[in-house]
Amino acid sequence: MTILQRFKRLSIWNKLAVLGSFLSIIALFLYFFPVIDSNHADKPAQVAGNNSMQVAHIAGNVVSNAPSTANDKQPSLRPSTPPSSFNTVETVFPMYLGSYWRYNISLVRQYDGPKIEKKFGQYTEKVISIDIQPDGVTRIIGTEISGTIFFSYCNDPDSSLIAQGDLTSWYVNDTHHVYHACTRENAYEIAGSAHTKGEAIINTPDEGSNKDSPEKVYPDYVVPFRVGNYWADEGVKREDTYYRYYVEAKETVSVPAGNFKNCFRIAYRTLPDSVVLWVCPGIGLVAKEYHHNGSIEDYRSELISYQIIPQ
């Protein structure tokens, strides 16, 4: 008598028991010998569900979510344990030589209907120079921005927010402040002034004369971040949080580069418009959004890949 004939002669309950045992064997086989999905086998792994990229704890290794290539000399690492605190600029913004961040740019439109998002460009910001000042703390950092530039602070005020091409941007970082400068000369002026007090002085051309006049500049960021903290209020006395950088919330952010926990939403809101920044400690800026009141269109940039190279 064949196995099939024996199976047909079993009762319905015995048949179910045999089938259950057979399916259990298949499940165990698949558990120990998983089948590779060819549709996903070649795709690069995305960043894990938290921003555990504290570079100070993994010095000498590259932190990246970019796809690996045969020419890569250093591995992409995703540490499983994030550091307990991010109290300095360097730990929040790991701006090391050669590191880069690549962003998508989208136009978001919503008017009497579903939100429509149209991607129309990318840009990459890469650290190309670092000049440590005599105090051993202040750093003048030059970055190269290439591609479609989103909301350049140094654009002509009468021009579009979107600029095309390449430019060099400058930052002045100390232990707790990040200043942005439009020129190398301005960066050194900020570094040479009392910038650690939360404001600095640069000389700008005075319209109608051939002389320069001093101008106060305020930091873009003051670290450590705490919800409710604010800075750069420029002496404006208000009851609300407008006309200053204000840390609104601590939240999880999802962008093409991955899902990042414990990020800070920082806003600079005015009556005509607002800029909202999402900063994830250990990674840096992961998203930026510009909104003009009365407009149905917003500009948004999101991090799509990055590589951090600790020194």
Written overview of the protein:
- 25% of the residues are buried.
- The chain has helices at 3-9, 12-32, 89-92, 184-192; strands spanning 63-64, 100-109, 116-132, 139-150, 162-173, 177-181, 200-205, 212-217, 221-222, 230-231, 245-255, 258-269, 273-280, 284-292, 297-308.
- The chain is globular, with a radius of gyration of 26 Å.
- The strands form two sheets. Strands 1, 2, 3, 4, 5, 6, 9, 10, 11, 12, 13, 14 and 15 form a 13-stranded antiparallel β-sheet that branches. Strands 7-8 form a two-stranded antiparallel sheet.
- It folds into two domains: 3-32, no CATH class; 55-308, YmcC-like fold.
- With 311 residues, it is mainly beta.
| Count of domain modules | 2
The amount of beta strand, in percent, is 35-45%
User: Taking all residues together, what is the mean pLDDT?
Assistant: 74
Could you say which overall geometry the principal axes of the C-alpha atoms support? globular
Helix content: 10-25%
**Can you tell me the CATH topology of the largest domain?**
YmcC-like fold
Strand count? 15
Query: Roughly how many Å apart are the termini?
Result: 75 Å
User: What is the CA-based Rg, rounded?
Assistant: 26 Å
